[in-house]
Amino acid sequence: DGGITQSPKYLFRKEGQNVTLSCEQNLNHDAMYWYRQDPGQGLRLIYYSQIVNDFQKGDIAEGYSVSREKKESFPLTVTSAQKNPTAFYLCASSTGVLVEQYFGPGTRLTVT
Amino acid sequence: ILNVEQSPQSLHVQEGDSTNFTCSFPSSNFYALHWYRWETAKSPEALFVMTLNGDEKKKGRISATLNTKEGYSYLYIKGSQPEDSATYLCALNSGNTPLVFGKGTRLSVIA
Q1: Where are the beta strands (DSSP E) in A8-105?
Q2: What is residue B27's predicted lDDT score, i.e. its pLDDT?
Q3: Distances from the Cα of A42 to the Cαs of B15, B38, B81, in angstroms?
Q4: From the list A43, A99, A102, which residue is nearest B101 (CB)?
Q5: Chain A, nearest residue to B35 by Cα
Q6: Among partner residues A4, A45, A100, which is closest to B98 by beta-carbon distance?
Q7: What is the rounded end-to-end Cα distance, in angstroms, of chain B?
Q8: Per-residue pLDDT reduced to its tens digit, A51-63
Q9: Do residues A59 and A44 lie in contact, with contact meaning Cβ atoms separated by under 8 Å?
Q10: Distances from the Cα of B57 to the Cα of A25, B9, B64, B76, angstroms
Q11: Inter-chain touch A97–B89, beta carbons under 8 Å
């Protein structure tokens, strides 16, 4: 089955801890993305990567970091510098930046 | 940051009613307009990608139109069914940049 997996579905962390969210795709897509969704907001872009070993900041990159060491994987680390980390995080991939994206099921992160 | 506006924010319709909603966007530097459907507990799924002014796309009972000169797109659902209940997202490619999403229109179809 081709698709995008995100794990875990729910994640709980204490304030001050870094946490890494997983995103894996087997669609052979070059581009991958991380979005954040908050109540009443649209999807906001955190980081994106158009190719392995390269990534760019999105609109709300502060307090987050990413890596793209493999084509299939684009993990997102939510650092302690992110002031409001509690949110729903969606990962997506596509063959390029200008075409439709395929989304994973999301991870709901709660930081207390 | 580009501003993509969707209206209404939410909508309740009776089963069998037809409905439509709007996506507005800046018309300068337009490349493509995307519509996605996001059902509860599922992942967003692409409905349409539209690039040309005057484009019309159709998938079953759902269709969309695009006006790039005035900066809007309409999504129409004919004979709404309960399974059409979802949030409909509009997103814009401008230049060579990733998608910018609107906040969505939440549709509830009452049986």
Answers
A1: 10-13, 19-25, 31-37, 44-51, 54-57, 64-66, 76-78, 87-94, 102-103
A2: 84
A3: 27, 12, 25
A4: A43
A5: A100
A6: A45
A7: 40
A8: 999 999 999 999 9
A9: yes
A10: 28, 23, 5, 10
A11: no
Q: Which amino acid is residue A43, in one-letter code?
A: L
Phi first, then psi, for residue B82 (nearest 5°) are: -55, -35
Over residues B76-92, the pLDDT tens digits come to: 999 999 999 999 999 99
A–B: how many Cβ contacts below 8 A? 48
Q: Residue A1 — very low, low, confident or very high, per pLDDT cuts 50/70/90?
A: low
Q: Are A75 and A59 in contact (CB under 8 A)?
A: no
Residues A58, B98: C-beta atoms closer than 8 Å: yes
Contact status, residue B16 vs residue B80, Cβ threshold 8 Å: yes
Peptide bond into A8 cis (omega under 30): yes
Does the pLDDT value for residue A98 go beyond 90? no
Give A33's contacts in chain B (Cβ within 8 Å): 98
Hey, are the CB atoms on A97 and B31 less than 8 Å from each other? no
* Average pLDDT score over chain A: 94
Distance between CA atoms of residues A68 and A52, nearest Å: 5
Q: How high is the pLDDT of residue B1? A: 65
Phi, psi for residue B84 in degrees, rounded to 5: -80, -10
Nearest CA in chain B to A33: B98
